[in-house]
Design goal:
Blueprint: H1 2-7, E1 20-21, E2 25-30, E3 33-35, E4 40-50, E5 55-62, E6 69-72, E7 82-83, E8 89-93, E9 97-103, E10 105-114, E11 121-133, E12 137-149, E13 158-159, H2 164-171, E14 176-177, E15 185-192, E16 199-205, E17 208-209, E18 215-218, E19 224-226, E20 230-233, E21 237-246, E22 256-268, E23 271-285, H3 302-321, H4 328-347, H5 352-374, H6 379-402, H7 412-429, H8 431-437, E24 453-456, E25 461-463, E26 472-476, H9 482-489, H10 492-499, E27 504-509, H11 521-530, E28 537-539, H12 544-549, E29 553-554, E30 557-560, E31 566-570, H13 588-597, E32 612-613
Parallel strand pairs: 14-23, 15-23, 26-27, 27-28
Antiparallel strand pairs: 1-2, 2-4, 3-13, 4-10, 5-9, 6-11, 7-10, 8-9, 11-12, 15-16, 16-21, 17-22, 18-22, 19-21, 20-21, 22-23, 24-25, 24-28, 26-30, 29-32, 30-31
Helix pairs in contact: 3-4, 3-5, 3-6, 5-6, 6-7, 7-8
């Protein structure tokens, strides 16, 4: 059905080029014009339609993937086109990774200026490289064309009734520069010195939270990896706090640094709003935070309401579970009514998603209580059910706190203490699940590389300790990822391994055995032989080593020096699309190894890795 939708024929509109189609997506050039203006600004669009659950990327693709690369052909009278980026969505990937982009359909607006064009037709063309992903990723490359009629001399442009509304709707989804919005301000602060590391705080005043939870999307930063934003609403706007991790350990935080961000799902004057800003952000020490805000009124907090809901639910279960007595059932219904009232109160304080999770958790708590009574005489089962009931009871206030919408803004110290209390409770209850869910950062450049011991496809066991005193390259691989496979076929890694024979080169496959990308060791060994890969490829089926390094893509490269320190973390080269000739590529690992061999500092020490997400 999805394929039929994608491959269905499209009307032969004059303002739309032919579709370039594949199983996961189709793409074309469009304009909003029946006849376009001969001079001035001209609007174009790169139009994607995607199969269900597949997505393409924003300018910061997140932990994996890469945004579309578009190279427009020269056209007489046409200036350099500029690709613009509508407000994106967030996609959760296996392994606690995230991606930023668009699903179902998107038009990337394109802006250019047209001087007096000769003739009556503007011939447009664009070479497009893009990556479309669900869990797996598939790269595509097309040359798109469009012949756009121009308005007769002295006549105005005419819109195309089919494409103009589509282009306009996506143009209206472009974030608005905050500096152009009267009464709306946004500012960032780099807060240093906290126990959990530096934090970026982004405030927006003059625009409120909409029906959906506001989203913050940061553009890539050369000095920091970023964690998941936490959002709080205020009387006048919203505040985001984003944990940061320096990419290079040991460097002092700058007094100021540039950040660029987009904020989505805001409302101003009753209308939806997304805004963007690019600012120089000052540093502020946590100890120098402003005078602390008044402490939160416990009795008005969603956590207190959630605790009352848990208590009322337990009371109703107890009243209904005991032998019938006069008035007991009525009291049980009264307790249930209190639960419903508290859930209504929570609906005013937390997100709809959070409320749904709380309702499911209360249902799970009730199920555990019911089964507990049915399991009389089975001590082990009753213990498990009691622990399950306790887990649900503790999860409800945690969910209320995690998903709150309306909250005063705590000082840095208060925020840290409250967050630590909630996280500590969950760690004591479900340590494994909590650790898997918390955001992870890679071991930074300059830090000691995490140790490991893994079995290779040849049956031997390899450990990082065995390479003590030697330079080591770690390459995250997945033969079923087209990026990893392309470099295997092009002998990118094997050539470097041969060039630097004294270096220990290890491939690591962290693909989950339940993933459709998983390749059995015997199949991996045959693949390696077919592609001339002679260095060991190790299996990290639990993903423990991949998470220790925060390996995000295949390939993702690390160089470890002879002292066991990470000196490079990032991509293999600067050509994610594979468009460049090999001689034109900047191979970061080659440059890093050359510097390491001559005892020079590796520069760059960090780059953005590209490829498919690691299938944890």
């Amino acid at each position: 059905m999805a394929i039929a939708l994608l491959l269905s024929s499209s009307p032969a509109w004059g303002a739309a080029g032919e579709w370039a189609m594949n199983e996961q997506s189709r793409v074309r050039l469009i304009t909003p014009y029946g006849t376009a203006p001969r001079t001035g600004e001209i609007r174009l669009g790169l139009h994607f339609k995607l199969a269900p659950r597949w997505h393409v990327y924003w300018k910061n693709s997140g932990d994996a993937g890469f945004p579309p690369i578009v190279v427009f052909g020269k056209a007489a009278g046409l200036g350099e086109p500029e690709l613009l980026w509508p407000a994106p969505d967030r996609f959760e990937l296996p392994g606690n990774l995230v991606a930023f982009g668009y699903e179902n359909e998107v038009v990337y607006p394109v802006r250019a200026r047209l001087s007096q064009a000769p003739g009556d037709v503007l011939k447009l063309s664009a070479d497009v490289d893009y990556l479309v992903c669900e869990i797996d990723c598939v790269p595509y490359r097309y040359t798109l064309t469009l012949d756009q009629p121009l308005a007769p001399a002295g006549r105005p442009a005419e819109p195309d009734p089919a494409t103009a509304p589509l282009v306009d709707s996506w143009w209206n989804r472009l974030p608005v520069p905050a500096t152009t919005l009267p009464g709306v301000t946004t500012a960032g602060t780099l807060i240093a010195g906290g126990a959990a590391g530096p934090v970026l705080e982004v405030r927006v005043d003059g625009a409120r939270s909409g029906a959906e939870r506001p989203g913050l999307f940061l553009e890539t930063h050369e000095a920091f990896d970023t964690g998941r934003p936490e959002v709080r609403t205020t009387d006048g706007g919203v505040v985001f706090r984003v944990p940061l991790r320096p990419k290079v350990a040991g460097r002092a935080l700058p007094r100021e640094t540039g950040f660029a961000w987009t904020v989505t799902h805001l409302v101003r004057d009753g209308r939806p709003l997304s805004l963007e800003a690019r600012q120089t952000v000052p540093r502020r020490d946590a100890a120098s935070d402003p005078v602390p805000q008044p402490r939160e009124d416990l009795f008005r907090s969603p956590v207190f309401a959630a605790l009352l809901a848990v208590g009322a639910t337990l009371l109703a279960l107890w009243l209904w579970g005991e032998p019938a007595r006069p008035g007991r059932e009525a009291l049980g219904f009264a307790a249930l009514a209190a639960v419903l009232g508290l859930l209504y109160l929570l609906s005013r304080q937390i997100s709809f998603e959070g409320l749904a999770w709380i309702e499911l958790t209360l249902l799970g708590m009730s199920l555990c209580a019911w089964l507990y009574r049915k399991a009389a005489g089975r001590r082990t089962l009753r213990l498990v059910l009691a622990l399950g009931l306790l887990a649900c009871a503790l999860a409800v206030p945690w969910l209320a706190d995690r998903n709150r919408l309306i909250d005063h803004i705590l000082s840095t110290q208060e925020e840290s203490m409250r967050s630590n209390r909630v996280k500590s409770a969950m760690l004591l209850l479900l340590a494994g699940l909590a650790l898997a869910a918390l955001p992870a950062f890679a071991a930074a450049v300059g830090e000691t590389a995490p140790t490991f011991s893994l079995k290779g496809v040849d049956g031997k066991t390899y450990s990082l300790a065995d390479a003590k005193g030697k330079v080591v390259v770690l390459e995250w691989v997945n033969p079923n990822c087209p990026f990893s496979d392309r470099h295997a076929r092009e002998k990118t890694m094997t050539a470097l391994n041969k060039k630097y024979g004294q270096v220990v080169w290890l491939g690591i496959n962290s693909t989950n055995p339940n993933s459709r990308d998983f390749m059995k060791p015997a199949e991996q060994l045959a693949y390696d032989r077919q592609n001339g890969i002679t260095y060991p490829v190790l299996y990290d089926e639990t993903g423990q080593v991949g998470r220790a390094y925060d390996a995000k893509t295949t390939p993702h490269m690390f160089i470890i020096d002879e002292h066991g320190k990470i000196v490079y973390n990032g991509a293999i080269d600067d050509d994610p699309s594979g468009r460049k000739a090999r001689a034109e590529r900047v191979n970061y690992v080659d440059g890093g190894l050359s510097s390491e061999m001559t005892h020079k500092a590796v520069d760059p020490a960090t780059t953005r890795p590209y490829g498919c997400s690691v299938k944890y």
